[in-house]
Design a protein that fits this description.
- By secondary structure, this protein is an all-beta fold.
- Helix content is 0%, strand content 39%.
- The chain contains no helices and 9 strands.
- The strands form 3 sheets. A 5-stranded antiparallel beta sheet has the order 6-3-2-1-7, with no helix packed on it. The chain has a two-stranded antiparallel sheet with strand order 4-5. Strands 8-9 form a two-stranded antiparallel sheet.
Length: 109
């Protein structure tokens, strides 16, 4: 997968792609990745309401908003240095370790 847990991503297409009429794109931090299903859960994106029943005494119940998975192909990683949505390249360090590198500014991700 090109996305990992903890990456900051921008939503490219779908229901949550446009924040308002100006065309701002929504960004968020990846909470979890399902590589087998090809989906990611992004903080604050694709919110759904779930009805929760209290199970124990003192446990709150009611309507809870939670994130739902979206396809990983609909998000793109944001470079922390140049703050632009970008793909990443894989380069090797002098010690032979693989690192992800921004294709736009060549910064290590």
């Amino acid at each position: 997968m090109h996305i990992r847990t903890g990456d900051t991503v921008v939503v490219l297409t779908g229901r949550d792609a446009i924040k308002n009429d100006k065309g701002e794109r929504k960004t968020g931090k990846v909470l979890s990745v399902d590589a087998k299903g090809g989906k990611v859960i992004v903080e604050g994106i694709s919110m759904a309401k779930r009805h929760k029943k209290p199970r124990k005494q003192g446990d709150p119940g009611g309507i809870i908003k939670m994130e739902t998975p979206i396809y990983a192909s609909k998000v793109m990683r944001v470079c922390p240095k140049c703050s632009k949505p970008t793909r990443h390249a894989v380069k090797f360090t002098d010690k032979g370790k693989k690192v992800r590198v921004c294709k736009k500014c060549s910064a290590e991700i």
